[in-house]
Design goal:
The complex is a heterodimer of chains A (271) and B (327).
Chain A lengths: L3 H4 L38 H29 L8 H16 L34 E8 L11 E2 L9 H18 L3 H17 L4 E9 L4 H6 L11 E11 L5 E6 L5 E7 L3
Antiparallel strand pairs in A: 1-2, 1-3, 3-4, 4-5, 5-6
Helix pairs in contact in A: 2-3, 4-5
Chain B lengths: L1 H23 L6 H19 L5 H5 L7 H8 L24 H20 L3 H18 L7 H12 L10 H8 L5 H6 L4 H26 L2 H4 L3 H6 L16 H21 L5 H20 L2 H11 L5 H14 L1
Chain lengths: 271, 327
């Protein structure tokens, strides 16, 4: 096995060119402040040095391969990318995803279905497409769907800065995204999960909706109109479903079209 | 003529080889990595700990994301991966879905992370911490954000380093056992593995920041100079309300372009001795401003922790020495 004692004998450089206090400084001007305290090269000797150089070669090879994989997938994370990049990143994915080194999900366009696999924010960049605040709201049995105050924001009790709250925002983003790409069945699967977890918490949701919080316009602010960001005009419904819950707490989800009509059955418990 | 060409390529190879060896295979004190271990351990504790009250909600059989839903979303199946479009996301959390077992497994994970943060059996707990954190990310990739990839990357590279050599219970216990006195532990801990881990962390962090800058350059909102307004206008995420800047086009454009410029220049200027301290400072200030605008506290904290790998171990050691002297 590789151990530090195997390698280090050949790495002990003459420290005459380094300075003080246990932390040496290289005299090179470039890349120096955090340069290692010793460098390989001119040093030792003989068989242990040869053994070490084999290890160093193997480590170097591993580093090169590793970063080739990492760079190939990292720079496939934003559009536009070439077909070769897509193919290469797909081939390398078994390695990079195993180690969670690839924040990219799939490698198509920003609205490609596969993007969800790596989570919404794969390019580690804000203010991208669909990147507005999302929220999931439920309406319990017996409440009035036309009364905004009757709708309850899921996870509203949590701090908006916390990861606990942001996970619900990302879930809502995912539902919106699935709706945009036309995968209503998978969106309904997520909505059904929300309905079931609400049931577990003792609430019986009749409707579940996903809304985006539209950004305030600079032009409108300049004209002095629509200045309250929490006004209802700033919320846009992107998904609504009616939930049907039987006496055994099995949940069926029916997506509603914008007019409030049932679109088609999309997910049933036990599917 | 040919011999001159051969000589050129031989000199080139020798030069690159010398630079490569100097960069990767020196030794380095582990003080910076010790500090990064503590901070990334705290971030990992926060990440996993934030699931404590939602375990059943997310991962339970009647939760939002039972395993079957995740497999459907990711294109995997329970027993096989490897199809043309498969993904490879392992997680021990797929093995449990009962509330009691979830809680037991969760608290064992938290104990591992606590031990890692404190530097107890750090070689083992470091690798286990990576497994714990990645298992949570892979169990629910749909709700993963920008914070998780940075945290996982940091934990992975720390696995190669003697992070428990300093600022750790391991070090304290070693000293108590008399195997090592305080002086030697402070002055003779330089290691090859510490340098390799630091370099891996530095290169990957620089690549992340370059990717962020590249993504911004190719995005319409950033290229057009409006992205900062986009962030300002997100009423639910922002920590401060700067909407009074609505008529300050120049300020918004300048702020937007500055962020892009900083992230594009970072991977270059961070390696130059004279510009590094200044640029680290500028980057930290810019990211702190972005924290206020985006509310992405954990993500930018994880990035800043990863960027600490660029700080000289001597500075960290001096800082801690000063603090212990003054106390």
């Amino acid at each position: 096995m590789l151990s530090e004692s195997t390698i280090q004998p050949c790495l002990v450089e003459s420290h005459s060119s380094y300075s003080t206090a246990g932390f040496e400084r290289s005299k090179l001007g470039f890349m120096t402040e955090d340069s290692p305290q010793s460098s390989p090269g001119q040093t030792a000797q003989s068989s242990s040095a040869q053994t070490s150089s084999v290890w160093l070669g193997l480590i170097s090879l591993a580093i090169i391969i590793h970063f080739f994989f990492v760079f190939a997938v990292l720079f496939s994370a934003s559009d536009p990318i070439s077909l070769t990049q897509v193919r290469m990143a797909r081939r390398l994915r078994p390695y990079t995803q195993l180690l969670q080194l690839n924040p990219a999900g799939d490698l198509g366009g920003p609205l490609d279905q596969g993007d969800l696999r790596g989570g919404p924010q794969y390019s580690l960049t804000d203010a991208m497409e669909l990147d507005v605040d999302h929220r999931i709201e439920i309406l319990e049995d017996g409440k009035d769907e036309n009364l905004e105050s009757d709708w309850m924001l899921v996870a509203s009790s949590r701090s908006h800065v916390s990861e606990r709250f942001k996970r619900y925002q990302r879930l809502a983003w995912s539902i919106h995204y699935l709706t945009v790409v036309g995968d209503n069945d998978t969106a309904a699967l997520l909505i059904r999960g929300i309905a079931k977890s609400e049931l577990e918490a003792g609430r019986r949701p009749r409707f579940i909706r996903c809304r985006t919080h539209v950004l305030q316009s600079r032009d409108e602010l300049e004209l002095g109109i629509n200045q309250d960001a929490w006004d209802s005009i700033f919320f846009e419904e992107v998904y609504r479903a009616a939930t049907v819950i039987d006496q055994h707490d099995n949940v069926e989800i029916n997506k509603l079209d914008p007019a409030g009509q049932v679109a088609r059955p999309t997910a049933k418990a036990g599917e | 003529m040919m011999s001159a060409i051969f000589k050129y390529f031989r000199d080139l190879a020798d030069g690159i080889s010398a630079i490569w060896n100097r960069f990767w295979f020196g030794t380095r004190e582990p003080h910076t990595l010790g500090l990064i271990r503590i901070l990334s351990g705290l971030l990992a504790l926060y990440f996993v700990g934030s699931f404590t009250f939602d375990l059943n909600t997310w991962f339970g059989a009647n939760g939002i994301l039972p395993s079957e839903t995740v497999w459907r979303l990711t294109g995997e199946s329970e027993f096989s991966v490897g199809g043309a479009d498969s993904v490879y996301r392992w997680s021990y959390l797929h093995l449990v879905d009962s509330p009691v077992m979830l809680m037991v497994v969760h608290f064992v994970g938290l104990l591992v992370l606590l031990a890692f943060t404190l530097g107890l059996y750090s070689r083992i707990t470091n690798a286990l911490s990576f497994v714990v954190v990645v298992s949570y990310i892979h169990r629910a990739p749909v709700i993963a954000g920008m914070f998780e990839p940075v945290l996982a990357m940091t934990l992975l590279y720390l696995c190669f380093a003697p992070t428990g050599a300093v600022y750790s219970l391991d070090g304290y216990l070693r000293r108590r056992r008399g195997k090592e006195n305080a002086e030697s532990s402070n002055n003779n801990t330089a290691a090859l593995s510490a340098n390799i881990a630091t370099r891996l962390l530095q290169v990957h962090t620089a690549a992340f920041v370059l990717m962020m800058g590249h993504a911004k350059m190719t995005s319409g909102t950033w290229a057009a100079g409006n992205a900062i307004w986009w962030l300002i206008a997100r009423s639910e995420s922002r920590l401060v309300d700067l909407t009074f800047l609505y008529d300050s086009t120049v300020i918004i454009n300048m702020m937007t372009h500055s962020v892009v410029a900083i992230e594009i220049l970072f991977p270059v200027l961070i390696w130059i001795r004279l510009s590094k301290p200044l640029f680290l400072g500028v980057t930290f200030v810019a990211w702190t401003c972005l924290v206020l605008l985006t509310g992405q506290v954990a993500f930018y904290a994880a990035l800043m922790v990863a960027c600490l790998s660029f700080v000289d171990p001597a500075r960290i050691a001096a800082l801690f020495a000063k603090r212990s002297e003054s106390s």
